[in-house]
Design a protein that fits this description.
single chain; 214 residues; mainly beta; 5-stranded mixed beta sheet; 4-stranded antiparallel beta sheet; 0% helix
């Protein structure tokens, strides 16, 4: 996303050693700069197993794969054929080879939803699976229906951890939510204030809630 919070169709890499960004365009393969730019942008997540980034375009319905080592974009699903819950946050389970989108079923309302996509290569159509009705407890977590919640895979426990913070649909307390894709269930853990800081804006938590195994 661009600095003002709107969408961008450019690809940037961040270098931790030098604390600098690099514009990677033009890329090899599919030219993502031709995509329409909107406030929805793209929902992307890094896959450590393939050292690549998978992205769902919230406007044109594309599903893309970016390979940093060769600076290549591969279009996996054509425009209009891939739909996911806009306003959601993406994260990848590297063990089960699933990419999840958790958040509202539309950025215009706060109804919780969870969708999954098989990125193992076994499903060449990358069919979107709606898990919402299969979940235990999770559907009752109103906070994770906020726009763009914090949502990451924690390799230490093999589960996902989410934090809604203060999104489009109101704020929540100091509670983190743990999603277990194996049992399709959620649990919650509440911390004494101010152990989990509140987001101060109204545009979602995004990557402010993140986890780096190293």
């Amino acid at each position: 996303r661009s600095p003002n919070g709107g969408g961008t169709n450019h690809i940037w890499l961040y270098y931790f050693a030098s604390s600098t960004w690099q514009d990677m365009d033009p890329v090899n393969g599919y030219d993502s700069t031709q995509n329409y730019v909107s406030v929805l942008g793209a929902d992307c997540a890094y896959d450590p197993e393939t050292d690549s980034v998978f992205c769902a375009d919230g406007t044109e319905g594309l599903f893309l794969k970016y390979i940093p080592s060769t600076n290549t974009v591969v279009k996996l699903v054509s425009s209009g054929n891939f739909q996911y819950d806009t306003g959601a946050t993406a994260a990848i389970d590297p063990v089960r080879r699933l990419m999840f989108f958790m958040g509202p079923n539309s950025y215009a309302n706060g109804t919780f939803a969870l969708q999954a996509v098989d990125i193992s290569g076994n499903d060449p159509s990358y069919t979107v699976q709606n898990w919402t009705s299969q979940l235990t407890v999770c559907s009752g977590i109103a906070g994770m229906g906020n726009g763009w919640p914090g949502f990451v895979y924690d390799s230490a426990i093999g589960k996902f951890v989410g934090f809604p913070g203060q999104g489009y649909f109101g704020s929540t307390g100091n509670t983190a939510y743990i999603f277990d894709p194996g049992t399709k269930s959620c649990s919650q853990q509440t911390f004494p204030s101010p152990a989990v800081p509140q987001a101060t804006g109204t545009d979602g938590t995004f990557g402010r809630w993140n986890y780096f195994p190293g």
